[in-house]
Design goal:
The chain is of the alpha/beta class and 449 residues long. Helices cover 37% and strands 21% of the residues. Helix 8 packs parallel to helix 9 (225-235) and helix 13 (323-336) runs parallel beside helix 14 (363-386). Pfam families: Radical_SAM, TRAM, UPF0004.
Length: 449
């Protein structure tokens, strides 16, 4: 950036990302733009010329952490008045948050939402040249800007966004309000990005979207998500795995599962959030499928992909949910036999339909229901992991585990974590592992020839 050249120094930036993989992917593009502008990076806010918080609005806990971090930055700003502090991401897109930051966190210089991510260099230049605060949170359709630079983590894993926004308006979810309507990337651009990642040595590539199953509907080309998977599998050569998240059950189809089954590059892993096992609660959530439809989908997927690793998201304590309805969720967990769950006690998001619903159950009651859910899933996970002991599986060694007994970290085709005994030379490559032990959360094994 010419501004910093005039200052006679190389600036440093500290980028802190909260939330989902989509936020991680956005953060990597922000870092790419910063690097192109001449910034280097630090993990210490006190040492940074620019501090950027890339935020999540899905959970109340994440918002509290962001406000706490913003408050702490008053000290770094006081020590370095020229420091620029930025707030971006889903949380920043909410008018109520922007108002609070404008009034109560006056040391924050730049606020912009996901729609304006591609304009970040322009907005930052305004901060530096106008010497004033800049807010860009307009509710606009959103623009897909191809070709933005990316700074990715070194290793074997990479994220590729294929669709932005969401059209579903689940009653508990803030995402459609902060990320806008669904906008699919051009298939050729996605193929080019995946091809480039494989050439660079990435071997575990995850396709991202709030609902990947909606991919292509807005393009008018006739290509859907299953077709995109088939094209990547057939046209991108190399030894790699493709994963994806998240899928919405209302849009998941036998065609998708058949495509997964016949494409060797597509991992035998499916993250299919069901949220509740009770039909009344599902209707109140505006999920637009039933318990019966969900079971039909997962049973079909398991039939065409034996050994499929199945994970899901679950909310306990949705407004108005009774104990009996919460136990319907527990019974569905037992019936399906998920490999793992991402579990949450309902957290109200201002501006969503569910936030205005009566919610008579106490937090203590919800915690009891939640604990029953965890007990059920932990029992299932431990049993399924124990069944692996004595078997031999192919794994991708992705790094060090931090445990001297099992120094390597790896993942199976289905995404199961395997702590591995073997040479560090295996990091970054596929290997064969003999599973020797297991617990509720992971497998343990040794690399074999």
């Amino acid at each position: 950036m010419a501004y910093w050249q005039d200052q006679g120094k190389a600036p440093t930036a500290c980028v802190d990302t909260f939330g989902c993989q989509q936020n991680v992917a956005d953060g990597q593009r922000i870092m790419g733009m910063l690097q192109t502008m001449g910034f280097t990076f630090t993990d210490e806010p006190a040492q940074a010329d620019l501090v950027l918080l890339n935020t999540c609005a899905v959970r109340e806990h994440a918002e509290k952490r962001v406000y706490g971090n913003l408050g702490a930055l008053t000290h770094t700003k006081k020590a370095n008045p020229a420091q620029v502090i930025c707030l971006c991401g889903c949380m920043a897109q909410q008018p109520s948050v922007a108002k609070k930051v404008r009034e109560s966190y006056r040391h924050v210089d730049l606020v912009f939402g996901p729609h304006a991510l591609w304009r970040f260099p322009e907005l930052l230049y305004q901060v530096y040249t106008r010497r004033g605060r800049v807010f860009s949170i307009d509710d606009e359709p959103g623009t897909i800007a191809e070709g933005l630079p990316v700074v990715r983590d070194k290793g074997v894993k990479a994220w590729v966004s294929i669709i932005y926004g969401c059209n579903n308006f689940c009653s508990y979810c803030i995402v459609p309000y902060v990320r806008g309507r669904e906008r699919s990337r051009d298939a050729e651009c996605i193929l080019e990005e995946v091809r480039g990642l494989v050439a660079e040595g990435y071997k575990d590539i995850t396709l991202l979207g709030q609902n990947v199953n909606s991919y292509g509907r807005d393009l008018g080309t006739g290509m859907d998500f299953a077709d995109l998977l088939a094209r990547i599998d057939g046209e991108v050569e190399g030894d790699y795995l493709i994963r994806f998240m998240s899928s919405h059950p209302k849009d998941a189809t036998p065609k998708l599962f058949d495509t997964m089954a016949r494409c060797p590059h597509v991992a035998r892993q499916l993250h299919l959030p069901f949220q509740s096992g009770n039909n009344r609660v599902l209707e109140a959530m505006n999920r637009r499928y039933t318990r019966e439809k969900y079971l039909e989908l997962v049973n079909y997927a398991k039939d065409v992909m034996p050994g499929l690793v199945l994970t899901s998201d679950v909310i306990i304590g949705f407004p108005g949910e009774t104990e009996a309805e919460a136990m319907d969720t527990v019974s569905l967990v037992r019936e399906v036999g998920f490999d793992a769950l991402f579990t949450f006690i309902y957290s109200p998001r201002p501006g969503t339909a569910a936030a205005a619903m009566p919610d008579p159950a106490t937090r203590a009651e919800k915690q009891v229901w939640f604990d029953r859910l965890l007990d059920a899933q932990n029992e299932i996970s431990a049993r399924q992991h124990a069944a692996y002991v004595g078997s031999t599986v192919r794994v991708l060694v992705d790094g060090e585990s931090g445990d001297e007994r099992w120094p390597l970290s790896s993942r199976t085709n289905g995404g199961r974590l395997v702590h591995l005994l073997g040479s560090r030379d295996l990091i970054g490559s596929f290997a064969t592992a003999r599973i020797t032990d297991a617990n509720t959360w992971a497998l343990f094994g040794e690399a074999v020839e």
